[in-house]
Every structure is written in C-alpha cells, then in structure tokens.
Amino acid sequence: MAFCKFATEFMTKSYTVIDNLFFNRFLISTPPKHISIYLYGLYICEQLEELDLARFSQNMGYTQDEIIESFEYWQEQGIVRIVSDSPFQVQYLPIRNANENTRKYDKDKYTKFNKEIQSILSGRMITPNEYEEYYTLMEGFAIPDGRKLSPEALLMIVRYCAQNKGDNVGYRYILTVARDWANMGLITPEQVETHLEATSNASTSVNQILKALGSTKKSSIDELQLYLKWIELGFVDECILYVAKTLKKMGRANFEKLDKRLLKYYELHLLSSKEIADYEDNVDKIFNLARDINRTLGLYYEDVTNQIETYINPWLSLGYEPETLLSIAQDCFVIGKRTLNNLDEQIHYLFNQGIVSKKSYEQFTLSQRITKETIKTILKNLNIERNVTTLDIDFWNRWTNIWAFNLEIVDYAVSLAKAKGANLSYVNTILADWHSQHIFTLEQAKLASENYQVTKQTKTTNTTKITSRSYTKSENEELFNEFKEMDI
Predict the structure, then answer these.
(1) Residues whose CB falls within 8 Å of the CB of residue 270, separated by 6 or more in sequence, listed in order
(2) Which of 323, 337, 423, 474 could form a disulfide with 332 if both were Cys (CB 3.0 to 4.6 A apart)?
C-alpha cells in the first residue's frame, strides 16, 4: 500500500481538466453519446481508477459494443488510441497534437461539396477545420434508423443560413441549424425542401408581425422558429398580430417580449384576440379581486402578482365569477380554512361536484345550512351541547345519501339512542345494522326493534348458571397450547 494517497472524498471533489480545443472542435458536431463516453473516460484517467470495459459499460448505461464504437470514433478524430482489443484498453492523447491527417475521411468524396459550400459562403474563406466539422456532422451523426445527413441536404441548409444571416455566416450557427433540422428528421434534399417551403410561407406572416411591432428588419431564422412554435401552440395570425400591436402601443415591442406575452396567454388558455382583450380589460379588476380574497381570508401580500397567476386566474378559467369566489372565501374563513391553498382545495372540490355558478353555490350552501340545523336538532334531542363537526356531517351524508334513509327512520333511531343516553355514534350503529338487514321503512325499523327487545328479554330469562371450576397450572398450560395450535 502506498504511504500517501488521496482520500475518496478528495478524489470525488477534485477536478477533471478538459482542453478548450475539445469544445471548439468537437462539442457542437459530435453526437451526445460520444461526448459523454469521452468525458467519462477522461474522468477515469484523472482519478487513476482502474476500470475494465464491463464496469465502464455498466456505469455509463451503454453496451460494450457501443463503448468500443465510440472510442473507435474518437480514435478517428485523433484524440485517443486503442492500444489493446483484448482486454480493451484506450489511451487518451493530447488534443493539441491531433491534426487533420489523423481523421479518416475520404477527402475526394467531398470535392464537389467543398466547391459548392465555398461558393455559397463567398463572404469568407472556409478553413480546413471548418470543412472537417461538416464532414464529422455528415459522417458521425445519424438519426435513430441509421440514416445520415446527405451533403446535398446540408448544402441547402447552408444556403438557407446564408440567405438569412449573410454569406459570411459563422459555421457554428450553420452546424446548430443543421443538427436541429437533422434531429427533426430532415436529412434528404426533398425533406429539407418541404421544410423550406413551409418556412417560406411563414416568412410572410413573420414580416407582418415585425411590421406590427414597428420593425423594418428582415425576418430571421430564430423569429421564424418562434412563429412556428406559436402556431403549434394554437395561436392564429390574427391573434398574434393583435398582441404585437398592443405591445407596440405600450412601447415594449420586440419578438422576445411578444413570445413571453403569448406564452403567458397560452398558460391562461387565452388563444383568441377576444379572450385576450377581455382579460386585459379586467386586469385591474383581477388585482382588486386578489386583494379582496386575501383580505377575506385575513391575509396580506404587498404584491399579489404571484397569487393571481397561481390561484386567481386558474379559478376564473374554471368559470367562477368574482362574487362567487368571495363567497367561497368567506365560508372558508368561517370554518377555519384560511389559506389560499385551503381555498384552492375547496374550489376544486366544488368544481368536481359541478358547483360553479353563483346559483349552484347558493343552493349548495343552503343545503349545508339545512343539514347543520338538522344535525343541531338531533344533538339537542340527545342532550348534547356542542357545535356541528365534519364527522357529524359525514354521518348525515352517509345516512341520507349513501344508505338512503328518510328523516323518519333517522328520528326513530335517535329516539332509541336517547333512551339509552347514547351519542351520535350509537345512532350510526343502529342505522348501520338496519342497512345491513335491508330495513328501509319506519314500520320495518319498529318491528326489528321490538323483535330485538323480545329476543334480549328471552335470553335474560333463560340464562343458564355456569358452574365454575378451578384448574391446575399444568391443565391451564395444556389448554393454552391447544389454543395456539388451533386454526382460526
């Protein structure tokens, strides 16, 4: 054992050094799987940890063949060397020593591609390293079914980027667009052309939106992507233009702010200009409603914006009117539910019961009051002085709604409990017994009660005196053992 070595805690909290050239040359154009495998291998090298291929594969969650394939890819890039196939061993090489000759691409294969891409990007000279990045993308990137981005498709993407960004557009931007489109499955000229046609149609709409925002610039790729996202969310051009013009009037007009505003409306389920206009016309009323609800619950927030987004707007989107929300808040305060979360739970409970309109809530509260008054009368008959509890209401709902007993039978059960000086739980026991016997009329209940009294009296009269007997200790132990062995 070494005299001195790093503690495990030191090793796991140390650093793994990555050459910046790795990011410049490989990060954008390399499939994520290869990136993660390379970085994990570099980490293992830094930690001086001995791992075989099987353990490496298990830790990474890739098969051993995938690990080998990845390191073969990096060997082609010139930054690792496979020194042994069995056992499989890899040696990491300095990235700065890697040169173009170590990469195994057939340059003749891309002669036509090289000429055409340089003619498109006529505003600058393409470097050998940039060419290599394009080769790496076409050779190393593949969609799940194994197909790769064709040179013709990549040239169409480069031409599109140059048209929108100028003929000196940077290659990192081109690679980003190309990878995004390839991930969308756009890898053939036909697929790219179809997408470009759709994008071209969208350009007209984007230019109109820019004009509504007060901008005279030409639409960009990023703006086209935002527009396509809005359309996918369900917005139509008329609605987008309405919001853009509104922002311009407010002096806050650009595509980023328009995107933020549309996402807010989307979260509120507002997808038409009318819905948005109605909402904006009521913004002040919504803020006042939030403050009134907080005040009703005994709460105070200096800024109610978060409460509006989290609670008020979702409640309004369910169809609740401000007056109804305040009534529910008042009732929640009375029963001790004095937080916005409590109120939210109550509102969703009511919504699930179909209680949304003012009239339906008034009927619900009236029914609740009648129920409480009825329970108060029952408690009074039982000589019980206290407030009605939620358990009492649960009892009542079970008796009348689930078991379908009428008030006459409940009153009769109460009278039987009162005669015994019992409480509401005893009433529940009587009614549960009748329900199990399918007794649902007053006559059946009275007959069952009379029969019970006769049976009880007969049992008392015919009680047989039991002769007691004492047992020895050994007899008691033997009897206890028999009980333990008995199947119950």
Answers:
(1) 276, 279
(2) 337
pLDDT tens-digit map of 331-390: 999 888 899 999 999 999 999 989 999 999 999 889 888 888 999 999 998 999 888 888
Count other C-beta atoms under 10 Å from residue 15's C-beta.
7
Q: Within 13 A of 262's CA, how many CA atoms are on the CB side?
A: 28
Residue 484: the pLDDT is 46
Query: Among 196-205, 368-377, 437-446, which is the least confidently predicted range?
Result: 196-205
Residue pLDDT, tens place only, 40-67: 998 888 776 678 899 999 999 999 988 9
- On average, the pLDDT of the chain sits at 84
Q: Is 115 exposed, middle or buried (0-12, 13-18, 19+ CB in 10 A)?
A: exposed
Report the pLDDT value the prediction gives residue 486, as an integer from 0 to 100: 45
Do residues 262 and 240 touch, judged by C-beta distance below 8 A?
Answer: yes
Alpha carbon distances (Å) from 342 to 8, 77, 315, 369? 48, 61, 13, 20
Whole-number Cα distances in Å, 71 to 5, 26, 221: 30, 14, 35
Q: Write down the pLDDT at residue 483.
A: 46
Q: The dihedral of CA 158, 163, 165, 168: what is its sign?
A: positive
CA distance 202 to 59: 46
Residues in Cβ contact with 205 at an 8 Å cutoff, skipping those fewer than 6 apart: 227, 237, 240
Partners of 88 in beta bridges: 85
CATH architecture of 8-102: Orthogonal Bundle (1.10)
Domains in the chain: boundaries: 8-102, 107-187, 195-280, 282-356, 382-460
- The pair of three-digit structure tokens given for residue 51, joined into one six-digit string: 């791992």
